[in-house]
Amino acid sequence: QVQLVESGGGLVQTGGSLRLSCTASGRTFSTYNMGWFRQAPGKEREFVASISRSGGSTSTAESAKGRFTISRDNAKNTAYLQMNSLKLEDTAVYYCAAGWLPKKYDYWGQGTQVTVSS
After folding, report:
1. Closest CA to 99 of 28, 16, 6
2. Angle at 16 between CA 113 and CA 56, to 5 degrees
3. How far apart are CA 25 and CA 56, in angstroms?
């Protein structure tokens, strides 16, 4: 089992940047595919980005392409989401997740709030 802790959220103006971190407990971080999701008030949770175990393959939602970059450092047991050119509609709670199978996530963090203001 792995525990995930997100950090790096906060309040930022439109056009600004934030980097979210997701740190995992245990020694098996490199065996998990990692993903970032978000949920805005009144909306369903949606996929943002994912990265393979080695970091060699990534996927990004259309709404985030060109602005968000997912990465990972297996030596630090940490996944990242670099968010640039933030928009009001990026306001949400952001969650990281870990899983063994592609697109199937078994473990979730508690979430970190990102608020973009004008």
Report:
1. 28
2. 75
3. 22
- Is residue 18 within 8 Å of residue 6, measured between CB atoms? no
Mean pLDDT of the 70-93 span: 98
In which region does residue 31 sit, left (phi positive, over 0), alpha (psi from -120 to 50) or beta (all else)? Answer: alpha
User: What gap in Å lies between CA 83 and CA 85, rounded to an integer?
Assistant: 7
Which residue shows structure tokens 């600004």? 16
Quick check: 27 pLDDT over 80? no
Let me know: does 20 contact 6? Beta carbons within 8 Å. yes
Total residue length of the chain:
118
Under the banding of pLDDT at 50, 70 and 90, the label for residue 16 is very high
Tokens of 30: 């490199």
Phi, psi angles (nearest 5°) of residue 74: -65, -25
The torsion defined by the Cα of 23, 26, 27 and 32, in degrees rounded to 10, comes to -60
